[in-house]
Amino acid sequence: MAVFLSADCVGAPSTRLACDLLSCFGLSLSCLGQSMRKLLRQQVEALHADHRQLHGTVADADADVLVRISDNPAGYTIAPHSHRQIQLLCAFSGVVQINTERGSWMIPPGHGLLIPARLQHSVEVLSDVSIKSVYLLTGQDDLAERMLQVLGVTDLAHALIVEAIRLSDAPPGTRKLALVLELLTAEIAALPIRPLGLPFPADRRLAALCRAYMAAPSVNERLDDWAAKLAMSRRTFTRLFQRETGLSFVAWRQQASLFACLPRLAEGVPVTQVAMLAGYDNVAAFTTMFRRRLGTAPRNYMRASLAR
Which of 72, 89, 113, 109 is CA-nearest to residue 303? Predict the structure, then answer.
């Protein structure tokens, strides 16, 4: 096995779709738009060149396992692209969002997204983030058959990635490096799945309602209100929403609220304020939703993630 490492930041100008999705996060993330404009004005040509170079290097590599490192500023967007390898994109600090034709997936600290080979995806950095990507050739049959999944990065997987980076200068064929990469591959296949995907509807009218909700999430939003806005019966709207997103209205609303909250928590906004912004009357109700979705309280979640 071999490992490829790069510490460069790569990127490209955002597409209209990426900008639309980024705008969903409302005024609380307005600073990202300012950061993006600064990046486009001062660094776009260099980012273009870096991304083309690194993408080509990864595409041409014949190693079984590759590891790429990048520290990226808030507002940074990598345009749609794909890899011939399976990719585990890990966020060790900060929050990123991955957009595909199948929906959007948010990667908060301590998590990774398993991206199938040759799947087009774009990357939006919602807060300053340190990304470590592990690329696996498609010979890994058990991983190749899996779809987009957000995974919790275990302490063991985290330690193995860090160790692989530390051993990056070891001579080819070094036994310790080979063992680390072999164990890392096995550990990736066993990482726990986290419910952090947010399918986005293709229907334009329904998508507009979803974008408006992302800008101002509220637990007071009701299915009947959305149905009325689209001049549909409750039954027709329910069928449309399920068909377009694969989720019930309530499940999507909870997930969308979580999406809008995570970047704010990552920025250090107090939990009480985040709960109020999400439309919850009290912190306890917000904490209950958060714990149900992620298995821990907001404070514990961010503390554990940032401790890495």
Answer: 109
